Amino acid sequence: MKTLLPTLLDYSFYAPLFLRLYVAYYIASLGREREKGVYGYLSFVHYLAALGIFLGVFLQVAAILGLISISIEYILRKKDNSLTKERLLLNVGAKVILISLLVLGSGPFSIDLPL
C-alpha cells in the first residue's frame, strides 16, 4: 500500500487503545455530571460502562452498556432542553467509537475475555 508516511502504519495496532481510553473518560465524565443531577442513580451505569471499557473487560458488553448509557443521557437531556449542539456531536462521536470498538476489538493492554 502506497502512503506518505509508511512508518505510522506500525502504530495502527494501538488505535483501539486510544479510542477506548477516550470513550471511557467521556462516559465517566457523563457519570460525574449525572451524579449531581435528578437521576443520580444512573451514574452507576456510566461508571460501570467506563470501567469495563477502560480495562477492556468484556468489551462487547461494556460497549453496548456504554451505548445504552449515552442514549439514556441523550433522552434525559433532550427532555430537560439542556442538549447543546456540542454535546450532541460528542454523543454521536462516542457512539461511533463504541460501534467501531464492537467490531475492532479491545486492542492491546486489555483483559478481554471471550464470551
Structural summary, described in words:
The chain is 65% helix and 0% strand. The model has no long low-confidence stretch (mean pLDDT 88). The chain has helices at residues 15-35, 43-55, 59-79, 85-104. Helix 3 (59-79) packs antiparallel against helix 4 (85-104). It has one domain (15-104). By secondary structure, the protein is mainly alpha-helical. The longest helix has 21 residues, at 15-35.
Q: Secondary-structure map with pairings?
A:
Blueprint: H1 15-35, H2 43-55, H3 59-79, H4 85-104
Helix pairs in contact: 1-2, 1-4, 2-3, 3-4
| Mean pLDDT score | 88
CA-CA gap between termini: 35 Å
Give the proportion of residues in helices: 55-70%
Query: In sequence order, what are the helices and strands, one letter per element?
Result: HHHH
Count of distinct strands: 0
What ranges have pLDDT less than 50 throughout 5 or more consecutive residues? none
Proportion of beta-strand residues: under 5%
Count of individual helical segments? 4
By helix and strand content, what is the structural category?
mainly alpha
Over the alpha carbons, how many angstroms does the gyration radius reach?
16 Å
Count of folded domains: 1
Largest sheet: none
The 3D shape can be described as globular
